Amino acid sequence: MRASEFIHLRVGFERNFVIESELNEDEIEIHLRPWGENPIYPVKQSCLTGTGRTIKIKKQKSNIKDKRVCLILHNIRSTHNVGSIFRTADAVGVSKIFLTGYTPAPVDRFGREVKEISKTALGAEKNIEWEKVKNIDTLIKKLKKEKVLIIGVEQSKKSIDYKKVSTKDGPALGWKGNSVFIFGNEVNGLPKSILNKCDIIAEIPMKGKKESLNVSVSAGVVLFRILNI
Predict the structure, then answer these.
(1) pLDDT for 134 beyond 60
(2) Contact predicate 43/56, CB 8 Å
(3) Most-buried pick from 26, 148, 158, 180 (CB within 10 A)?
(4) String of DSSP letters for 43-79
(5) Angle at which helices 79-92 and 215-226 pack, to 10 degrees?
(6) 5 vs 43, 54, 76, 102, 184, CA distance in Å?
(7) Strand partners, 131
């Protein structure tokens, strides 16, 4: 298993499964805690050394400053929607996905793979770095300090047509910094408290009576258009 593959799996570990200690600026040492009769993660035994199940791998920095495009999935309830968005995110080159509120993660708190997510993500959840964050307000505050362009996807009085976000005279045209797209709950969307913190609110115009799209479909429509893919 390549070190980069293990890094992605490691993101999902809970504190009681992993203890991480610095060796130097380029390498970290990871001690895997007991995982029962069968390994929870597909880590080859050949990769493990010593009785403490220790792995030494090259360190990969995951600071948001090193990223180009990230997503925040806030209070999305459906595991199938989360998996579908992971798959779309991989297709458009998203670097990292933040899972906030009660949005489910690819592994549960016991370190077990969530099959409903892996079924729709088709392995994309192992290709994209992800992080579970409880407080979205703290995360947004951190991103703003790092000069990240925050784009909320929602219907709002302050929203603009998503097709105009990165076109001529659009607010994101020529943006060379990092950006993050926020997608919200399937029914209630994003609350005003979050929309007020966004630099841009992008909306997909609706012509039908229902005036709504599945959140995973919305993610695909918005990302491919705004990122000009």
Answers:
(1) yes
(2) no
(3) 180
(4) --GGG-BTTTTEEEEE-----GGG-SEEEEEES---H
(5) 10
(6) 10, 16, 26, 26, 29
(7) 98
Distance of CA 116 to the CA centre of its chain: 17
The reported pTM is 0.70
Name residue 193's amino acid: S
DSSP assigned state of 112: -
Structure tokens at 65: 């400053």
Task: Give the residue from 46, 16, 44 showing the smallest Cα distance to 32.
Answer: 16
Residue type, 21: S
Specify the DSSP class assigned to residue 33: P
DSSP annotation string for 98-111: EEETTPPPSB-TTS
Residues 182, 73: Cα–Cα separation, whole Å: 6
- Specify which residues 32 forms β-bridges with: 18
**What's the confidence (pLDDT) of residue 167?**
63
Sheet containing 160-161: order of strands: 129-133, 96-100, 69-74, 179-183, 149-153, 200-203, 160-161
CA distance 125 to 94: 11
